[in-house]
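Run Benzoylformate decarboxylase through structure prediction, thanks.
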Amino acid sequence: MSSRPAKRAVFEQFAADGITVMFGNPGTVEQGFLDVLEELPDFRYVLALQESAALGIADGYARATAGPALVQLHTGVGLGNGVGMLYQAKRGHSPLVVIAGEAGVRYEAMDGQMAVDLVAMATPVTKYATRVTHPGSVLRVLRRAVKTAMTPPRGPVFVALPMDVLDAETDEPALPSTIPSRATVPVPEELDRAAAVLRAARRPVVLAGDGVAVSGAQPELAALAEALGAPVWTVNCSELVIDTTHPLHRGDLGHMFGEHSAAAVADADAVLVVGTYLFPEVFPLLRSPFAEGCRIVHVDLDDYEIAKNIPAEVALAADPKPTLAALAARLGPARPLPGRAPAEPYGAGMMDLFAAELARRAPADLVLFDEALTASPALLRHLPPRRPGSYFQTRGGSLGVGLPGAIGIKLARPGSEVVGFTGDGGSMYTIQALWSAARYGVAARFVICDNRRYQLLDDNLEQYWRERGIASHPHPEGFDLAHPEIDFVRLARSLGVPGVKVSKPAQVESAVGRMLAEPGPFLVHLMTT
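Sure, done. The structure for Benzoylformate decarboxylase is below.
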């Protein structure tokens, strides 16, 4: 391979890995390789006005493509702005490849402006973080980063690229990264042990998480649940792991309080845990919620998460898809399915009206990104997720992923109708993302569900009061978002995105029609209270 500057060679490496788009926000110490990017007609730079927005768009793109998404941040200040979204990506196992520049190795002892230990900053919120210090290893390190990001359990990685290293010559060849296959299945003896535990159960329960979606094991999960006749609870899922209209689907355990999980598994005599750890709540129980004698079978590719908090009788570090198929084959034919529970009566609130109208008009390829957590029950009553890849939800606890996540999904799937739902509070974390949608003509739709509060905090505080016997009283003033009132339509318009405010039931039908007919991005400001 002939010698060339490393700042040019990095793009050869990205191309070798099929990476042709970079999401970012530029800075001085990245100017050298961003200048090279302008000479590459087949490589696209998607500009965001803040690092959290760039990472949120990349997260949606990575989730929709199931491939690596490249993000450029601006040294320590940009990395600092993006830490919350990187935490979100880490908890959700998004394969982001994040790069950031710095002034140079030769300036290391100077403690100059913006000098910071980038690797130390990135390590807590990434799967792998490193810094390149020699031009002869730039491409090698980038391949290692892509491999690490994409090998299950996937996750974000970070590489610091000093400017003087990128300016130097390298003769490293650009080669495709190697992604090890982890499509593993346990040996027959271990499968037999797991099947024996499940076969003996009279009251089995299945707890499933996002690892099922990553593996593409949705059909196998449904088949195994049917063979057991076991109800399926999803555990803090952000993607579809089972058709939510399936008779055995019971809903999500939630992510806040361990008591919810305890109630779901209290009567189980055997539990199959697949693609998740137990239990990912903010306030998990400090004791096991399982009944004495309950037997646990745990299947996941993330061996760290297996039995992390609660021991398992059979612990299988394996790919859910072939493992569930092998277990179902051992358990025999499906048991009769229960009848579906009667549908909940639909409310007459604005969220129900809007979701019902969207369901009536929605195309078959509709994709939802759901960050409007307190509005989600109404949304899912009318648009229950049924197809893998058609529903994505926030994860990790970082607010602000709804708007940029929808943009990333639409960039990845330009032929699909993509609608992102967020709240009035969450939207303001990354409202700048609308500008990127307008700049690049990304025809995603955005719905801001405005209840003028951090409503989830109200709900959680009331739970806190109940647990401690505290009498109900007014919620903290800091939860209120009503004053001054945010005019989201004017704000969106200033960022290049048209929109409409919906505050009366009679406005819903025309708003949904206009939203779906718009050739570019469009925002609906939906008053839900």
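The chain has a mean pLDDT of 93.
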